[in-house]
Structure formats: C-alpha cells, structure tokens
Fold these 2 entries.
Entry 1:
Amino acid sequence: MRRRLCHLGRELWSAKYIYVFLLPGLIYYGIFRYGPMYGLLMAFQDYNARFGVMGSPWVGLKHFQRMFITPNSISALVNTFVISFSRLLIEFPAPILLALLLNEMRGRRMKRIYQTLFTFPHFLSWVIVSSILKTMLGNNGVVNALIAFFGGERVNFLATPSLFRGILYTTSIWKEAGWSAILYIAAIAGVYPEYYEAAIVDGASRLQRIWHVTLPGIRPTIAVLFILSVGNVMNGGFDQIFNMRNGAVGRVADILDTYVYDITFKATPNYSFSTAVGMFKSVVNLAMLLGANGVVKRLSGEGLLQ
C-alpha cells in the first residue's frame, strides 16, 4: 500500500504542471457547480428563509407528489414531454439535412454565403424573434394583411392552440439549424476523399454517396449529439416559449419551466417546490441520457459514455 502511494505521488509530481493548469477549472466547478447542490435539501423541506436550510421543517416527498397531483403541474409535465420529444423528431434531423445540402453545393463562395445566412439567426435573441413573429403573424400583421387582401379570413396564428406548436418547431429550426449544422459540416470535412473517389469509380450516384459514405462518416457525431439532445429532454425551450406564449395557448404551451416561473413570480414564491421540480428534471434528464447512450451504443457501437 505504501509503495502504491509513493508511486502515485511520483506520478502526480511528474505531471504537476498539468494539475496546476486544471486547478482553476476544478475550483470553479467546486464552488459554482457542486457547492450550490447543498440547496437541493430545500426540495425535501417547507423552506423558510428566516430559518434557513437547516432550520426549515422536513416534509419528505411532499413537493414531488404535488407535481403529479396538481392539474396545472400535470398539464405542464405532459406538455414538456410532448414538446421535447417532438423537437427530437422534427428539429434534430434539420441541421443534418442542412449540412448535407451545403456540402453538396458546388460553388465555395455560394456555400459560404448560404452558411452565413443560415447561421445568422442564432445570434438573435428570442425576444427579438418573438417580436418579429408577433409583427408578422399577429391579427393585424403582415401575413393577415395579405390574407385579407386576397379575400380570406384573418387568423391570429400565435393565439391558435392547434398552430402554436408548429410555429415553435418551425421558428426553432429557422433560428438554430444553421448553427447546429456547423458541427456536422466539420464532421463531413473529416471524411476521407478517397472514399468518395472509390464510390464514384463504382458508379455510385450522388444520393448513394451521401447514404453510403457521408452519413456513415458522421455517424459518431450524430450519435453523440443525439444522446446529448435526449439528455436535455426535460428542457422544453423556456426562452422561446416564454416569449411566444399567451393566455390563449397556455394549455398547449406551458411547460414545467414556465409553470415554475409563474408560481414563483406571479404568486407567493414556493422555493421548495421549485427546487423539487428542478431536481426531478435533472434526474429524468440523467436517466434519459444513460438510457439513450445504452441504446445507441448497442445499435451503432457509438456512445458518449463507455
């Protein structure tokens, strides 16, 4: 045992500069990431700021049970799952398709122009995007003005529950697909050109080269990003929904994050319940990430965690 400790000490000393380099990051995570986890105790208490964490009464799983009893909380939970999984099905493939299309463009100059155009919306905040949408899709907006001009009936798109989620997915793709496609474009650039040359010699068409060369070449990148997306499934997109929602679409738009915001800032704050919701989301996200990693690794051999 003593010999092992001495050997470990020598190894640590030989790499001392590396550990010194890592030290600021470890301190940061220790103070700002792991330190605040002490506050998770509030999820099991009726927290009172006057008594603090250690002085507040313990109530067990009371706040976790509330999530599955309160009608508004159940509705928010269902909306979170529906919106998040719909995003996976609809939004996740969009940057892959965009990257493939950009990669197949012949002109390098035009490719850069289009990539810039598709990437630019990422740098707009959802406050700006939602304002643009309200100007365009509102009852007196540009789109309705055109509909009325051609004799149609005005539609308040952002206040129609059946249309709201479709607008969520469409605007999210418009805003983020170009930025996310950068990773796939970088992965495509790493595919050996010899593979394409061999496919051309074998008489493969452009679609066949995409299917049999490009997609297998970027499969590890797709696998890792898919696992990370599944591990983020309980975050339904607070910024976007918060700025775009209104009272008319609340039943299809409110997710757990907006529900917690409402009960925290529009009513008497309940810090214990808010903490319980956050902890529940984190546990579900972790379980989904581990599950997705296991499934993807079994199916494709690629995984985020070994």
Entry 2:
Amino acid sequence: MKELIMIIMTIVGVGFSYAQNTKVNTDSLYYQAKELHSKKKYKAALVKVNEGLLIAPEYIDIRVLRIRICQQLNKFNQASEDLYTLINTNTSLTYRNLTFQQIAIAKTRKELTTFIAKTSSFYANNIDYTLFQAEAYLRLNDRTTAKSLMKNIGNTSLNKNQKYRYRQITKQLNKNQIGIYHEFLSFLNEYPQQKTWNTTRLEYLRYIGVNTVTARVSYSNRFVDDAILYELESYPVFSKKSYGFINLSTSKKTDFFQSFGIRASVFYTVTKWIEVEGGFRHLNYRHADFTSYVFGLTSYQNKFYLNARAFIGPKVENTLVQNYQLNIRYYFKNNEDYGYLRIGTGISPDESTRFTQITENPSLNSHYCTLGISKSLGYKYNLMGSVGYLNEDLQNNGTGNQISCSIGLKYSF
C-alpha cells in the first residue's frame, strides 16, 4: 500500500513539475515573441509564437499575438483561423479591433467574403463593422456590395467619427451630384414695391479624391429686372488639419450682380473640437470694388455644429460694413440629416442676391433669423428647405420686413 502511494505521489510530482516547466517555457516564448514584435522582427516573432502554441494551444495571449504578427505579415488565412478560435458571443467585443483590422487587410474579395460570413453573426448591429466592410469592398472595387451596405447605414444614428467615414465612403461611391434650388424673397408693406424676388440655382458637383469642385448658375429676377450669375467653386484639402475654400464668380449685369468676384478662406483644426477660419471676399461692381475680410470659429460638440463668423468691410461713405452671424446645426442621424438656425446682423457678401442693398446704404442696419432642415430621401436624394425673416432700417427712418423661403433637391450618382 505504501509503495502504491509513493508511486502515485511520484507521478503527481513529475506531472506538476512538467506543468510548471511548460508554463515557464511558454511564458518565456511569449515574452521573447512580444519583444521581437515590438522591434518589428515579425518573422522571428512568428517562430516563437508557433512554438508556444504547439506546447500550449490554449494560451490565449500567445494566440492573440500571433494574430497581430500574421496581420503584419499579411498571412490572412492564419490570422482568420486564430480569430475563429477566439471569437464567440461572449468575446466578440474583446476581439473587435482585431476583427476590424482583419477586414481592412483582406487582399481579395473571396478572402473578405469568407471572413465576413464566419464573423458577421457576432457583429450584426455594429456600425463600425459595417463601415469597415464597405471600405474594404470599395477598396476591392466591389461597388455594388459597398453601396448595399451604405444603404443600411443611411437611417442609423452615427457618432462624429462614423459620420466622417460615412461621408468619405459616400463621396467615393457617388462622385457626382446635381442640385436645383429656388428662393423667394418677399418685401412686405413697408416697401414701395411689394413684390417678390425669385432666384433659381442649378449646380453640378464633382468629388475628385477628397476635393470637391462645383459649377453653379443662378438666375435672379428682381421686380422688372433679371440677371445670371456664374460661379466655379472648390474645397481643396491640404492636410488632415487644413482645407480651403475658393469661389470665382462673374455676371454681365454688373449693376445687379458682381462683374467679377473672388471668395477665399482657409480652415485649420486647432484642436479635436475647434476649427478656425480666415479669408476674404472681393467683389467688383460697375460703380465700385468691395473687399471684406472673414473670420470664423467652429466647434463640434456631440451632435451639434456651432459656428460664429464675422465679415468686416468694406468701408463705404465712412461707414464700415459689418456682418456677424451665429450658425447652429443639430445632426439627427448622419451628415445629410440635420436642422439649422442662423441669426445675425448685417448682410454678408456671400449673399449675392442681397449684398447690393448694403453696399448702396451702408449705414442702414439689419437683423435676421433663418430656420432650415436637410433630409435624406433614401440613399441618393436629399431635400432641403428653409424660412427666414429679416428686419432692416429704411432711408425714411422706418423699418422694413422681408420674408424668405427656399427649397432644394440634390441627387447623387
């Protein structure tokens, strides 16, 4: 009996000692591989993790490290197999970033589709998972699948980063956009002519990489006179933190619209939530030239876009023309669904249909408020509308009231 007990104790001791040595060996291999990985010696690191997993296939940290190494070495199939081993209902969030990275490095549509088929059930309601899929399919030139995925996202609430990615994917899928807009501007009883100004705009926009170029034609009828304004506009992107705005315009009716105009601004992101703007507006009319300078400050707070702008100049008849405005947007779901409010004093040179009122009578002040909404209709259409009210000083020492209404429709393709 004593001999049997001694044999059992010996076996247990040997087993315990072996387990300890195995644990020490695998720990040593893991830390060696981790060190090699940090030094970007991925092939050598892969040898170590493979040895470790042969000894201890249940060692999760080594398997996770092998996934990272295989992703660096573009060994897609091995990384996929390891992820299939780790991911289940309880661990999907833990290995979410590794899963997203795997989607991002897929080299063929077959690799991507196979991996998604085996992991999609764990990320069915994850917006980032869908965005990574759309980006990957777009990169692999499968625009049909990417568009299908984006349609599913269209009616979902997105955070700031998701909105940016959604917008970038949409730009690549739909590089062209046409829009038509109409504005009514009614002068109420205080004015000699109680009629309406009508302005219709037709525009074509083209995304070229991350940049945009827009051609625009505006026809405006003011009482008994009319004119056409031609514009070419672009938003060039300089870096991740800065981009620009430039607009060139011309019209043959130089007492109505400017004969030539140039508007330009530079935008720079100071911090994650703060953007500053600096620029100028130069408009040439038949009777004079006008130059204004613009300064802006924008902040992004959750679903809010907050913007303050000031247009200073020109100086007309010893009076400095000034416009101050506050713009607020609230995004409902994505970049195309929002409501906005604009309040301000004075009229900015960006309002081509109204700016001549200020240049002719610079000492007359005005205050205004505009409410508007933008609503996506499906994947390719976007409807916009606004109503506005303006109160301004008149030359007879009274005040005049104007009501504006606009509606527009955009189509992307």
